[in-house]
Amino acid sequence: MNAFRSRHEERYRDAAVGDGLGRERSPSRLLGRNAALLGAGAALAAAAVYVQMRTREAENTNPPAGRFIEVEGVRLHYLERGQGQPLVLLHGNGSMIQDFETSGLIEEAAKHYRVIAFDRPGYGYSTRPRSTIWGPQAQAELLHHALHLMGISRPIVVGHSWGAMVAATMALDYPGAVKGLVLMSGYYYPTARLDVPFASQPAIPLIGDLLRYTVSPLLSRMMWPAVLRKLFGPKEVPERFAREYSVWMTLRPSQLRAAAAEAALMIPAAFSLRNRYRELDVPVAIVTGSSDRQVSSRFQSERLHDEVRRSTLHVATGVGHMVHHFAQGEILSAIEEVGKELPQRQAVPRIHAQRIPLH
């Protein structure tokens, strides 16, 4: 009887250290696994503390430079400079007002226009409620209401990259409220993008939240130089951008969520807009870099020019995705071009691709 009890207790102990599949595990293996889990948890906790510290430091160093307006539960941050015809600037994915500031576009445009540069929802100091899917239509509606509350009517709207889809949607959904468009380095038509699944991960509920507050900012910081080379190439990263643009403002968990969500929405958004561009009935200046490594100027900007009746195409030779950092004079000329009043319903002659030499 004692021998039976001894064998029974031995089998019970073996089952207690099993792996759930009937295979035995030794106490030393259990201890090793627990130590690894504790180590991983400690590493994540340390990463979270570091990310929080860098986020707080970035916000202290880069306080809000503009004003705030509350619209439909969203607190929008915007910068206003100059006087005259209103000119709205909308930045691209992962960016913020600082991008336009460091390019010099705001200060140059403010000499002739009333410039209003927005941090789009989730970027800079603008909030991005999770209750809304912030595609181009939702953002266009929000910005339209914001401009109405600010007493701004019929602005020229300038959009860069993802912001170009928002700008185009504003003119499509509110055709009488936009005077003209300048669309820079835009993504207008759906294509296969291998970078989208990776870039979208921080937007995944729960898992994405954990990544954004721990690992994602650190990995993104390691990849930052390569990202800039792709965005600015083949040109060098401008010295002013490198000196003044805040990396850690971009890598804050809240902004990473906005960027990841827009990466996930990019192809569906372009798909939903692809058949609507022919409806645009305002002057449209399309600006693109001939050497854009982020989006194809041929399959995006040139195709858009072919479909939009009242459009001109400006191709900056030897310039990449960040065209506004290298061709400010040409962009200001495009803004002036679309701002000219035209008789109602007058057809505009087709203006074919114009190569812009850089000085």
Brief sketch in words of this structure:
This protein is 48% helix and 14% strand.
Please bin the fraction of helical residues.
Answer: 40-55%
Strand order, largest beta sheet: 1-2-4-3-5-6-7-8-9
Major sheet attributes: 9 strands, mixed
Beta-strand percentage? 5-15%
| Shape field | globular
| Number of helical segments with 4 or more residues | 14
Tell me how many strands there are.
9
- What's the Cα radius of gyration? 26 Å
Unreliable segments of 5+ consecutive residues? 8-23, 342-359
Distance between the termini: 98 Å
Order of helices and strands: HHEEEHHEHEHEHHHHHHEHEHE
Mean pLDDT over all positions = 87
Q: Helices and strands: which structural class?
A: alpha/beta
Q: How would you portray this structure in words?
A:
A nine-stranded mixed β-sheet has the order 1-2-4-3-5-6-7-8-9, with helices on both faces. It is globular. By secondary structure, the chain is of the alpha/beta class. It is built from 14 helices and nine strands.
Which keywords apply here?
single chain, nine-stranded mixed β-sheet, 9 strands, alpha/beta, disordered C terminus, 359 residues
What's the helix and strand layout?
Blueprint: H1 2-16, H2 27-61, E1 67-71, E2 74-81, E3 86-90, H3 97-103, H4 105-109, E4 114-118, H5 136-149, E5 156-160, H6 162-173, E6 180-184, H7 195-200, H8 207-212, H9 215-232, H10 239-244, H11 247-250, H12 253-273, E7 284-289, H13 298-307, E8 311-316, H14 328-339, E9 351-356
Parallel strand pairs: 3-4, 3-5, 5-6, 6-7, 7-8, 8-9
Antiparallel strand pairs: 1-2, 2-4
Helix pairs in contact: 5-6
